[in-house]
Every structure is written in C-alpha cells, then in structure tokens.
Amino acid sequence: MAGIDYGERIPNNVSLGDNRRLQRALEEWQPKFLDWWMSMGPTGFQQKDVYLRTAVSVDAQGWAQFDYVRMPEYRWGLFLAEAEAGRTIGFGDHLGAPSWQEVPGEYRGVLRRLIVTQGDTEPASVEQQRHLGVTCPSLYDLRNLFQINVEEGRHLWAMVYLLDAYFGRDGREESEALLQRRSGDRDRPRILGAFNEKTPDWLSYLMFTYFTDRDGKYQLASLAESGFDPLSRTCRFMLTEEAHHLFVGETGIGRVVQRTCELMREGKTDDVRRLGGIDLETLQRYINFHYSVSLDLFGSEVSTNAANFYTMGLKGRFEESKKRDDHRLKDATYTVSELAGDRITTREASALPALNERLRDDYIADCQRGVDRWNQIIQKHGIGFELRLPNRGFHRAIGLFAEVKVSPDGLVLSEAAWDSNKHAWLPTESDQAYVESLMQPVTERGRFASWIAPPARGVNSQPIDFEYVRLT
Length: 472
Ligand code: BYC
Known about the structure:
Blueprint (H helix, E strand, L loop, with lengths): L5 H4 L10 H21 L8 E6 L10 E6 L37 H21 L10 H28 L1 H13 L21 H22 L5 H39 L12 H16 L8 H8 L21 E8 L2 E8 L4 H26 L24 E2 L5 E2 L1 H11 L3 H10 L30 E2 L2
Antiparallel strand pairs: 1-2, 1-7, 3-4, 5-6
Helix pairs in contact: 2-4, 2-5, 3-4, 3-5, 4-5, 4-7, 6-7, 6-8, 6-10, 7-10
The chain binds benzoyl coenzyme A.
Benzoyl coenzyme A (BYC) binds next to helix 3, helix 6 and helix 9.
C-alpha cells in the first residue's frame, strides 16, 4: 500500500495519513483481512455489484453514501464519533477524572480482552451468514444481508484500529488472531457461545439480527460509556450502523409474521405450511432458541469481571450518563434471580457484580417491544395467538440457569420433563427441514419468497423492485 492515498482507500477520521506506525500495522493486516473476506465472507457474490451504503465521514452527509460496489472493493473505513471537549470519566473509581486518551497501564490486559471479545463477534457473524446469499428471498433482502456483512467487517476494522493504534505488538497479534478463529470450529472457536451456532437459513438470520445484534447494541452502548475515549468514540459511531441491522431483524420477522397471517386468513387455515408459509408455532420455537442463546451473551448474573470493568471505568451501564445515582454503586443493590428448590425467586445483591444482569434486564425490555409489534400484526388479522419471550431461565448455558432445566413459563423441571417437552419449545429437526425446504432463491426484481411479505419501502428511497444486486 506504499504511496497510497489513505483518505481515499481507507476513509478515516483518525489521521491515518500522518500515522506511520498505524499505516505499517494496517499494511500488514489489510491483505490478511481480504484473504479472510474472500475465503470466509459471502459465498458466490463477490464479483457482483451491490447497492451499498459506505461511510466516508462521520457527518450527516458522509456517513451514508449509497452506490453500487463490489464487496471486496468496499472501502472499510476507520471512524470515531466526534471528540467531546473536556470529556470526563462518568463512573467507577475514576469518576470525574479526564477521560483517557491512551491505554491506562494498569488496565491494559482487561481492556484488551474487552476489545478482543467485541472484535471477535464481528467476523464471526460474517462467517455464520456466508452461505445465505444463494437462498435469498429477494434482491432487497440479499442487499441488506451484504450491507450487514460489510458493516460487520468495518466493525472488525474498528476494533483492529484500537488494537493496532493503542496496544503495540500484542495488539497486532490479537488483530491477527481475530482472523484466525472460526465460528463453530472445534479447535479454534469464536469466543462467545452464540457466535459458534449455525445460521443455516433466513429465518435464523432474521432472528439473529433481531436478538443477537441487539446484544451488540447493549454491549456497544456500555462500551461507549468507557473512560478510554477512543473506545467510547469508536463504539458511538458503530451504534449508528447497528441501527440498520436491528431494523432488518425487526421488520424482517414482522414481514414473516405478516405473510403467515395473510396465508392463514386467505386459506382459512392454521396449517400454513401447506401454503408455503411459516406457522406461528414454529416462529415461537425459533424465538425461544435465539432469545435464550442471546441472553447468555450477557454473562453470569453475578460477575466479578463485570464489577471490575465498571470500577475501573472501562465499561459502564446502558445510558450511564442519564442515570441519577452516585455512578460508583459501592453501596447500591440490584435484584437478581435466585433458585429456591424448583422455584425461581429473586434476591437483592450488591449492584456492582450484578451489572451483567442489569444490562440483560435493559435488553429484555427492548426485546419485548418488538414482540409487541409483531403481536399487533397478528391481532390486526384477527388471529388469536400471541408470540412470547420465554422465561429468562429457559435453555440457558451461562450463569445461574445453566445447571437447571426451565420451561418457557419459568418452571424448574426434571430432566425427564424437559426431555419430553423440549420438542414443543425449541426448533425440531422437522421444523429445520421444513424451513430449509422454503429456502429457494428468489432473484427476480420486486418478487419475494412465499414465506415473507415485501417490505413497506425500499432502501434509500428506491422502489421495492429496484435492482439492489446486479446478478447479470
Ligand atoms: N460464551 O463473569 P462472566 C455484537 C465467559 S455482540 C462463552 O459471567 P463477564 C454483535 C467470560 O468471557 C456484543 N463464554 O462474564 C452481534 C469469562 O471468561 P474468562 C459483543 C462466555 O466476563 C451480532 C467467563 O465466561 N460484545 O457486537 O462478566 C453480530 C466468566 O464470565 C460467555 C461484548 O460481549 C458466553 N456467552 O461478561 C455482530 C462486549 N459469557 O474471561 C456483532 C465485551 C461469559 O474468565 N464483552 N463467558 O476467560 C464483555 O463485556 C464480557 O466479556 C461479556 C461476559 C459480557 C461477554
């Protein structure tokens, strides 16, 4: 990349053109990223023109430029939200001190671990989604998939920027390792559980963008509060992109619900599988699965790691600055779940180690809002069915509930009771086979697969039948 115009090739607002050390690190990393993108990124469409949004600056005009781009030529940029003059640390032991512009030496390892964990999820999701393009339900959906994929790639760049610019040699090693772990690989798995699950079909993908990307929103918002200013600014800009991913999930599942209801009404039947739709019971089982694996992403209910991240000033609460308390929480308490025999109860715990649970509570309330909107669609069709979030203890692998079996209604069950009921609560092999059978590509402009309604509007004021991906 010697002699290149960095502003053109790698749009940025981090003065990349003046930073030789960072240039050298990226010169080494960028070709490896491209190799990873070509071998682990979207299969089959790398040479197609896709109508994509590219961020070329952080202001209102520059952050969302739309044009046809081939994905390997996407300009992955490095952006931080504008600096806030005089920003101070908003919580923990360093409350009120100037925010750090360099890595605080005593917290170096912990901070690096947080950044690596965040960074690891980004390429993981691209790997999980790489085979979806060939079974797209429409050109509109195909384009949205690729938009998300390139932006997850950019979010990886964002974390690699922090590692390369602020952590020296060990940061560069971590940047490489981010390209070496693989989702679902037995020997080199991705760090967090949900990112090693398969995303084999478009229903799973829409659920993932609703539930798992929403964990991203809450984790990024907590990191955006960080006393380490470059992390805060990076995450603030990432959140602007994240909104589109959540939109794809919420409207996507809403469109599936809409289509199912239309088929139920038109066919005067609950058996929409006969008509090429996805029945509401199957949707409920997919919700149960994706919601529960996403709840695990918040970690244990009581976690000294979480307390330390906060006390050190590295990771705050969701909307920390809007909260009216002492922002230190040494004497505060918070309600967490507890197992009392076969019942789930609550108890007051110290607030600091309960921070994961608090963030999970914020997340749960947000998840419920979308479910309510899907239920409104069902109600409008006069159908007596309600989608629900299962109890937080259902199907968990991390924390208090990992050791027990809990029904969607929150009853602690024997292994036998769980085994005889789980097929009613989680996607079965036959559900998966049915959903897979629906995954036939629809690539004609303006047409949509049988199981999903068209969106209310197109991308960037384009019509719904716009050629979002040029396949010829
Ligand atoms: N799977 O004290 P604990 C996104 C580990 S998503 C596997 O309970 P802690 C995106 C944990 O690492 C947002 N392991 O948890 C979405 C720890 O291991 P060590 C990603 C897990 O540390 C869609 C041990 O268990 N960002 O952006 O308080 C598409 C004890 O853990 C899991 C972040 O997560 C799990 N689910 O909290 C694309 C933010 N849970 O350290 C992108 C950064 C826990 O003892 N990460 N463990 O070896 C964090 O803040 C924290 O690491 C966690 C865990 C909240 C994840």
